[in-house]
## 1
Amino acid sequence: MNLIDIGANLTHDSFDHDRDAVLQRARAAGVAKMIVTGASREHSPKALALAQAHPGELFATAGVHPHHAVEYTDECDAEMRALHAHPEVVAVGECGLDFFRDFSPRPAQRKAFERQLQLASDLAVDGMGKPLFLHQRDAHADFMAMMKNFDGRVGPAVVHCFTGSRAELFDYLDHDWHIGITGWLCDERRGLHLRELVKHIPANRLMIETDAPYLLPRSVKPQPSHRRNEPMYLAHIVEELARDRGEDVTTTAANTADAARAFFRLD
Ligand SMILES: [Zn+2]
């Protein structure tokens, strides 16, 4: 298998002591490429550095997650624009809205999201358009309204780590957006509804991700004692996803990788 993990937080401190071993285990498990999520002022430059150190294997996004929205000053905006001048940075985000945790006040979240949508729109005008890597939790209506303001001005979009309802999924699909599926699917307590919903995602708009070090799939046996998720578990996620879609795992693996290569323009 040549899997592509479209969301791995490989700059996270929990990987500092063994990052090379983590990458080695990912390769051995068939993960050929990984998109390193940039989700803050501190970590977006680190994601770029990691991508530059592993050309053709690691790529980066640059953005500010809603949890960090209060960081999004003019200076931060200039830093993000500088990061997007690099070809290794393949998407704008992680950005969006998270009203579940509310780690940043909602007005700050809206402002940071708006500014990153504006950044994506400006890149598109300059002929350097990049896709959007989006986060939405418990903020669907506001999220859709803000995206509507940029209709036709921003590139393709992926709603990463989709965990929402059927209505939310069909709203996204109606807008031709892509969907990222994580090991949330493997959570027998809160992911059961996804088992049925994933059948409705067209193959060319479905991508897979671990969101490592978060969201260790609960059906991985045995569970590692440290509870840290790693890109190697993408192989487990794609097996479960294929079963739910009634597909052969090699088909789901190939289609999700093709979708990721086209979406992030990795070739
Ligand atoms: Zn997220």
## 2
Amino acid sequence: MRNIRIFDTTLRDGEQSPGASMNTSEKLQVAKQLARLGVDIIEAGFAIASPDDFNAIKTIGGEVEGPVICSLARAREEDIKRAWEALEDAPNKRIHTFHSTSDIHLKFQYRIDRDEALKRSVKMVQLAKSYVEDVEFSPMDATRTDIGYLCEVIEAVIEAGAITVNIPDTVGYTIPNEFGTLIKSIRDRVKNIDNAVIAVHCHNDLGLATSNSLSAVLNGAGQIECTINGIGERAGNCAMEEVVMALRTRKDLFNADTNIVTEEITRSSRLVSTITGMTVQPNKAIVGANAFAHESGIHQDGLLKNKSTYEIITPETIGLHKTQFVLGKHSGRNAFRTRLSELGYDLTNDEINNAFVRFKKIADQKKDIFDEDIEALVNEEVTMVTETFSLVDMNFSSGTDKQPVATVKIKIGSEIVEKTEQGDGPVDAIFKAITTITGTKSKLLKYEVKAITGGTDALGEVICSLEEDDTSVSGHGADTDIMTASAKAYINALNKLAARKS
Ligand SMILES: [Zn+2]
């Protein structure tokens, strides 16, 4: 049985999804979860891209144990040096450097010839190798590169010290059969290929990222680059949960498996969705809300008789358990803390205390508290930033024949500011009042409400994405009252924007 390495790029390529930017503490939470999930390599960012990226890589390298921590770097001296500095504290580190190899990119974007691109690639792999043992090289736009030249570059970078060569389908152009043949040709034509692991990095522009990655595995690839929920540039990357569960479910065909602890898949998916504000479509394979919902009478009949009639994966395999009542009004801090650690959260005492205060408040309004409610509370806690604005109080009124009006009180520093506004609906009125108080110039990109569990006393969860000066953030709020949840989400997003500026 071959072991396929999982290289997770949720924090780098995933973060390039529009509206999915994460701050350092959010990235750290995701990285800790990726470690529990058992990924082999975490691409934590692109060190030279921004001070935020640099700090996130440095923090993750210093605090997350288990996986190799990796930084992306263009084939430039300053990039590689910066990647090395960011990775300094990581016990296991990798520099991932890349250069375009397709004629389209070389001619129109880089304006250099093939020889020059080859020279730069080799030189920068050698430089990276002088810092770390573990060097990965990607010939960008590989699937549109002349195969003879591609093999020449791969051979040269392996000779220069790359121990992983990644074949990216940068523009999501290839199809499974063609991509499998490409991987096979590389294995047949590159003399020193056995000195490196072949990786693949597929994009989903044609909906083929998972299929292309699997086809590569069948033809000898030993590492898959992917993201949680398939988020990423444009149509996204290969989805970790899909590729891992395909390998696991069809071991008989692939004769390969990964180190992923599949029971952590659901929690990883929810955490990334909450933090990035990118919700998962209900019919998404593996992690969609309907992925295990059987609607047809014939199917239900079969399932009652024997699960294997219509179920190829059990929900438990991916850590999806039947919603069950877990805690209530009388549960104490200890029961709460125990449940948090059973759910896999690793929180500081302060974070536990703050979440517990909110838990008690919700337990007063809602009889039974479910795991999903606790997850929402905790996710709200971990996505919290230093509060420039905090909600003190809020009132609104609306009705079928009544103009909605809202009064909001917000604390800014030591001052409390109050404003009343009218709107098209109560949420509109509340948001207008918050906008007037905070004076924000941001644009609302997305507003989304969902119920976390069943029943009319369910917690409502609101995700609110804002954009200002090319920075986008997602705020998060949970409450039994969806108007309060909306206000919290909007204010949380404004606090994140303020934290970025400071
Ligand atoms: Zn990519």
